[in-house]
Write a structure and sequence with these properties.
- By secondary structure, this protein is of the alpha/beta class.
- Helix 2 crosses helix 3 (74-84) and helix 6 (128-138) packs parallel to helix 7.
- The model is unreliable at 1-14 (pLDDT under 50).
- The strands form two sheets. An eight-stranded mixed barrel has the order 3-4-6-7-8-9-10-11, surrounded by five helices. Strands 1-2 form a two-stranded antiparallel ribbon.
- The protein has helices at 15-18, 21-36, 74-84, 87-104, 120-123, 128-138, 160-172, 188-193, 203-207, 213-228, 241-249, 266-276; strands at residues 2-4, 10-12, 41-49, 55-66, 70-72, 113-117, 146-150, 175-181, 198-201, 232-236, 254-256.
- It is globular, with a radius of gyration of 20 Å.
- Bound molecules: ligand C2E and magnesium ion (3 copies).
- One of its GO terms (molecular function) is cyclic-guanylate-specific phosphodiesterase activity.
- This is EAL domain-containing protein (Putative c-di-GMP-specific phosphodiesterase class I).
Length: 287
């Protein structure tokens, strides 16, 4: 894991630096302050229907640019936010930003949906779903246009608070996606118990598709499992045409990855939507 400094240089975090408490404290202080001042923002990575190439929506990805640290990766600061309890404020702030933006730019969710990552810790909090529902209503948005991406953990097993939150989100119309499926903790039982709408196959399998027979078997089976359970299959981390073709052949429904689109600013995303939403057959000049 690494942090980019504004100079543009990459400074690799050695284990030494990573375990350096002073450094961690510094990161926490800066993150606390930037969350307080709502300095975090988001990019959107488009998602494509693999059957007909249409743009089905986008995943909201949080971004943090700090004046001293430069760009810090969410893989670095999200775990830190979770360890320190900053995550609740961070999620609330992000949801508010995304909903305000979608409300100000209704074309963003007119024909497409937006996926938002939330932390497992959010779902363990009583009242989380109620706040989401209040917020979506306040912004006069349809919950149906939003998918909540969650990464399962073992704490979800038979957890009443988690299940109540998910049920409330569902009842309000939100869709539920299980993120990073197939790595770490994934329970088949939870897929059913959480009434999952979407399975996101972890990019680890997708990236290795062309050269790893085991990833092929697992990936194919995850797609088939989704189909059997009537759940939408999404592959993330599509980095090449070869991988894309394989996934198409296996009837994976939705794709996401650098080979299709990189994460982009909300302004760029709107421009892309405007371009893609043009009628497929423009009037032809037959003269
Ligand atoms: P994720 O939810 O699995 O998101 C996908 C990550 O893969 C994103 O990294 C995306 O930029 C990256 N990606 C997409 N396509 C490709 C590809 O073809 N190749 C490669 N190498 N990478 C690709 P990002 O934005 O750095 O986010 C990392 C993780 O941080 C996310 O993984 C998610 O777990 C977490 N995260 C991001 N935004 C949020 C947020 O708003 N809230 C929470 N709680 N977590 C977030
Ligand atoms: Mg995600
Ligand atoms: Mg994730
Ligand atoms: Mg993922």
């Amino acid at each position: 894991q690494s942090v980019t400094y504004s100079s543009g240089n990459w400074a690799a975090f050695t284990d030494n630096v990573k375990n350096n408490h002073a450094h961690q404290l510094n990161l926490i202080t800066l993150l606390t302050n930037d969350i307080e001042h709502e300095k975090l923002y988001f990019d959107i990575q488009p998602q494509v229907n693999l059957t007909n190439q249409s743009l089905v929506g986008g995943e909201v990805l949080i971004r943090w640019h700090n004046q001293y640290l430069g760009q810090v990766s969410p893989s670095e600061f999200i775990p830190l936010a979770e360890q320190t309890g900053l995550i609740y404020k961070l999620t609330d702030m992000l949801i508010e930003k995304v909903f305000s933006w979608a409300s100000a730019n209704p074309q963003a969710v007119a024909n497409q949906y937006l996926s938002i990552n939330i932390s497992a810790l959010d779902l363990l909090q009583e009242g989380f779903a109620r706040r989401m529902v209040t917020s979506v209503t306040k912004h006069q948005l349809e919950a149906q246009k939003f998918t909540i991406e969650i990464t399962e953990t073992s704490v979800f097993d038979n957890n009443t608070i988690v299940h109540n939150n998910v049920k409330q989100l569902h009842n309000a119309g939100f869709k539920i996606a299980i993120d990073d499926f197939g790595v770490g903790y994934s329970s088949m039982q939870n897929i059913v118990a959480l009434e999952t709408d979407e399975l996101k196959i972890d990019q680890f399998f997708v990236m290795n598709l062309l050269n790893d027979p085991q990833s092929q078997i697992l990936c194919r089976n995850m797609i088939d499992l989704s189909k059997a359970l009537d759940i939408t299959s999404v592959a993330e981390g599509i980095e090449s045409e070869g991988i894309l073709q394989l996934l198409r052949q296996w009837r994976c429904q939705i794709g996401q990855g650098y080979h299709l689109y990189r994460p982009m600013t909300p302004v760029e995303y709107l421009a892309l939507l405007a371009e893609k939403d043009l009628p497929l057959s423009e009037p032809v000049n037959r003269a």
